[in-house]
């Protein structure tokens, strides 16, 4: 699941904003369609297909946001 929480400043602490679903807004659920494996031997980038999904947030009314 992907959530966002709007904020006017970068003031996150372990207690604020609360690290739970509320006050975050759920954007979408993202599931892997393809599994990738590391390159053999060197630990390089994964080989195979890449999972991508475009998500839209908003409307946003504050200076920034946190993703969870």
TrEMBL record:
InterPro entries: Ephrin_rcpt_lig-bd_dom, Galactose-bd-like_sf
Signal peptide: none
Domain Eph LBD: 1-68
Transmembrane intervals: none
Region called Disordered, residue ranges: 34-68
Gene3D superfamilies reported for this sequence: Galactose-binding domain-like
Pfam families in UniProt: Ephrin_lbd (PF01404)
Descriptive protein name: EPHB4 protein
Protein source organism: Aegotheles bennettii
